[in-house]
Amino acid sequence: MRKRSTLTLLLSLPCGALWGRPAERERVRVVLGEWAPMLGAGLPRYGVVAQLIEEVFASADIAVDFEFRPWQRAYAQVRSGQSHASALWGRTPEREAVCDFSDIIFSDDLVLFFRKDKPLAWDGKVEHLAALRGITIGLPLGSAKAEPLAQAERRGELRFEASGDELSNLHKLLVGRFDAVDLSRTIGSQLLLQRFSAAERELIGHTPSYQQWHYRMIFSRKAPDHARHLALFDQGLKRLKANGRYQELMARLPRDPAR
Question: Which of 38, 143, 198, 244 could form a disulfide with 49 if both were Cys (CB 3.0 to 4.6 A apart)?
Fold first, then answer.
């Protein structure tokens, strides 16, 4: 009986048997917190920063599965390795001890928001911190205390109260629960613009910037391939900055109208 040629045999095989099934695309799990207008479950494509993260990983042929959690839960998931990464976070010694940080994604000024009828006479300079003596500052749960205010708290000159999120803290400021609220200027200004009446906005002011804060991705050291994922993310972010796509996306972020 004549044997079929190798070519005839190969052509008779199903494509899947010849070439194998297409490899599944690699995926990473990224947990996010609500931080409009940067990030939000109800925002188009989960916000500009989430879109940026998705495009950065896509440039390395990696798909992203996003989920939203309260900030403390998000951080816990990264620490434990349940999620590969999270955004956005500032560097602190505590976080650096358990997570790796990406290059900078976004930078903004930190300010203290206050009621204008109870103004803070502080110019944002470290040498004039005495102007804040005795006040209580609201801070969102899961947020880090930036220097130099953390040092002032350790000296007993002021105190922080961690409570709720940025929006609820601004409401508490309005009703007198806090003397000030520590926030990114862009985030605080946009919340006031979008979620408060004109009359309420007129009651709120903010200090000059006391520090610029840099926001990054954190990567779990317990997740598989975390070092490779971090390197690929930083390389992709660098490419997007070089080709102008990063600037195009970040230009969509609203800015403080008072600037």
Answer: 38
Residue with token string 């993310």: 233
pLDDT tens-digit map of 42-88? 999 999 999 999 999 999 999 999 999 999 999 999 999 999 999 99
Chain centroid to Cα 201, Å, comes to 25
* CA–CA distance, 72 with 31 (Å, rounded to integer): 11
CB-based contact 69:142 (threshold 8 Å): no
Q: From CA 195, how far away is CA 215, in angstroms rounded?
A: 24
Closest of 101, 17, 14, 85 to residue 53, by C-alpha: 85
Q: Where are the alpha helices (DSSP H) in 81-148?
A: 93-96
Tokens representing 258 are 């008072």
Measured between alpha carbons, how far is 213 from 192 in angstroms, rounded to an integer?
Answer: 20
Residue among 195, 194, 183, 208 nearest 258 (CA) = 208
Q: How far is CA 45 from the centre of its chain?
A: 15
Phi and psi at 27, nearest 5°, equal -130, 150
Exposure string over 85-103, b if 16+ CB within 10 A, otherwise e: bbbbbbbeeebeeebbbbe
In order of 53, 63, 223, the CA distances from 184 in angstroms are 20, 30, 30
Whether residue 75 contacts residue 101, with contact meaning beta carbons closer than 8 Å, is answered with no
pTM over 0.85: no
Answer yes or no: are the C-beta atoms of 36 and 195 closer than 8 Å: no
